[in-house]
Amino acid sequence: MRRSLDGLDEGELLRRVARGDRRAFDALYRRTAPWLTARLRRRCADEDVVAEVLQETYLAVWRSAGSQAQSSSASGSAVGWLWTIAAHRLVDAFRHRARRERIPAVQTFETVAPAAEEEALAGGLDANLEKALHALPPELRQVLRAMVLDGLTARETSLLLGMPEGTVKTRARRARIALREALS
Question: pLDDT class for 55, splitting at 50, 70, 90?
């Protein structure tokens, strides 16, 4: 019986989760948790925070799959929805920790390897835009990744990256200007 779930895409698994199918939830978790964990680790070095965010994300998926399943027809949107939940939970964890400890948010780090979404995005970009993106300083690319690829607000990005909101806005503006100049 398990084989029948293996052939389903994430969107269909999510629709089954919305109907209360625990096997579909298990299959969705097994399929997406390793990927989601890797993405969270790229943005947070604290394993405890990553584990907590992962748990809260899947709890939210179980509770609210029905709302997404009705609007989701493709597996990509189901996976995107899953990442959106996780990203917001990660920002919430940073906020909570910063309030509780009165210290800057959890230290994040840049990895050398590009993220899968960056590779996919780069593959569909005009060569000039791709070159301009890679020419940006790392601190500008980091802000663009959070705001554009992850869809976070300036405030959420500031919490995620542990920097003032004004710095995030300035870096986002500098990145846009640099891209515009490189492409003109």
Answer: very high
> Is pTM beyond 0.90 here?
no
Quote the CA–CA distance of 81 and 15 in Å, as a whole number.
Answer: 13
Residues 6+ apart with CB under 8 A from 153: 147
Query: Which residues, 6+ apart, have CB-to-CB distance to 9 below 8 Å?
Result: 74, 75, 78
Least confident of 11-15, 30-34, 128-132, 157-161: 128-132
Higher pLDDT, 172 or 115: 172
CA distance 13 to 19: 10
> Domain spans of the chain?
1-109, 111-184
Q: Which residue has the higher pLDDT, 32 or 96?
A: 32
Spatial CB neighbours of 156, under 8 Å, sequence gap ≥ 6: 87, 88, 91, 146
Domain 111-184 CATH (choose: 3.90.180.10, 1.10.10.10, 3.30.70.270, 3.40.50.720): 1.10.10.10
Task: Answer yes or no: is pLDDT of 98 > 80.
Answer: no
Class of domain 1-109: mainly alpha
